[in-house]
Design goal:
The protein is of the alpha/beta class. It contains eight helices and ten strands. It has a six-stranded mixed sheet with strand order 6-7-8-3-9-10, with helices on both faces. Strands 2-1-4-5 form a four-stranded antiparallel sheet, with helices on one face. Bound molecules: adenosine-5'-diphosphate and magnesium ion (MG). Adenosine-5'-diphosphate (ADP) binds next to helix 1. It is a peripheral membrane protein.
C-alpha cells in the first residue's frame, strides 16, 4: 500500500486553478523530490498534503485512509520550511520541543524526544544556546529537529536549504540524505536545485503549471525525459 496517494488532486484560488489534477503514489520510506519553475504549484501541493491548505477537489490518502478533512496535527506529518520559523527568545531546547509543549507532552518524555533529535542531528552541545548564537546551518538543524521530535511518518521539506550558502547547502544536503537513511521515513522535498534533486531523490516529480510532466528516478528522467521541458529542467542533452 502506498504511504501517500494523491488522486486527481486539484486546487483553485478563486477562479484560478493552480493544481490541475495530480495523481501520485508515494511509497513508505521513499524520498520524492518535487521540481519545477517558480509558481508551478510545488508549495501549494506540499501545503495541501500537510493540511495547511484545503484540497479543492480530489483525494489525499495517507496509509490508505482519506485524510482530506483531518487537521494538520492529525496527519502524522511534519513540515520544514525555507524560513527557519524559530523563536529568538527561546533556547534551542525550547525551540525543538515547541510542538510537544503545545501538545502538552509531559516533561520527561519531551526531554527524551529532544535528546534523541539532538543526537540524530549532532547538536547536543547547542541545546542551551539562543538562535542568535547559531550559524545558518545550525538554525536549519533546529528547524529539522523540531520536525523529528514529533516522530512523523512523513516529512515535508519546502526548499529548506535555499537560504544557505553553497558550501553549507552541500553539507546539509548530505545530512538530509543521512537523516532519511537513519529514520526510514517518507520524505517529500521541494527544490529547484538540480543537484539536490538528482542526489537525494528515489524519484523526481517534474511539475509545470500545476500538472505533473513526468515521474521517475533521476536516471530515468535524465536518459528518457518525457518532453523538452523535462529535458531542459533536468539538464540532459536531448
Ligand atoms: P511554487 O511553490 O512552485 O513556486 P506555489 O505553490 O507557491 O508555487 O504557487 C502556485 C500558484 O498559486 C502561483 O501562481 C501562486 O501565485 C498561486 N498561489 C499560491 N498561494 C496562493 C494564495 N494563497 N492565493 C492566491 N494564489 C496563490
Ligand atoms: Mg514554493
Amino acid at each position: 500500500m502506498a504511504e501517500l496517494a494523491l488522486k486527481d488532486v486539484r486546487k483553485s484560488f478563486g477562479k484560478v486553478e493552480v493544481i490541475k489534477g495530480v495523481d501520485l503514489q508515494i511509497n513508505d520510506g521513499e524520498f520524492v523530490v518535487f521540481v519545477g519553475p517558480s509558481g508551478c504549484g510545488k508549495s501549494t501541493l506540499l501545503r495541501m498534503i500537510a493540511g495547511l491548505e484545503d484540497i479543492t477537489d480530489g483525494t489525499l490518502e495517507i496509509g490508505g485512509a482519506r485524510v482530506n478533512d483531518l487537521q494538520p496535527k492529525e496527519r502524522g506529518i511534519a513540515m520544514v520550511f525555507q524560513t527557519y520559523a524559530i523563536f529568538p527568545h527561546m533556547s534551542v531546547r525550547e525551540n525543538v520541543a515547541f510542538g510537544l509543549t503545545i501538545a502538552g507532552v509531559p516533561k520527561a518524555e519531551k526531554e527524551e524526544a529532544v535528546q534523541r533529535a539532538a543526537r540524530i542531528l549532532q547538536m547536543e552541545h547547542l541545546l542551551d544556546r539562543r538562535p542568535s548564537q547559531l550559524s545558518g546551518g545550525q538554525r536549519q538543524r533546529v528547524a529539522i529537529g523540531r520536525a523529528i521530535v514529533r516522530n512523523p511518518s512523513v516529512f515535508l521539506f519546502d526548499e529548506p536549504l535555499s537560504n544557505l550558502d553553497a558550501a553549507l547547502r552541500m553539507d546539509m544536503r548530505m545530512e538530509i540524505g543521512k537523516l532519511h537513511n537513519q529514520l526510514g521515513a517518507t520524505m517529500i522535498y521541494v527544490t529547484h536545485d538540480q543537484v539536490e534533486a538528482m542526489t537525494l531523490a528515489d524519484r523526481i516529480v517534474v511539475l509545470k503549471d500545476g500538472e505533473v510532466q513526468q515521474v521517475g528516478s533521476p536516471m530515468e528522467l535524465y536518459h528518457e525525459p518525457a518532453n523538452l521541458f523535462v529535458a531542459g529542467f533536468i539538464g540532459s542533452p536531448s
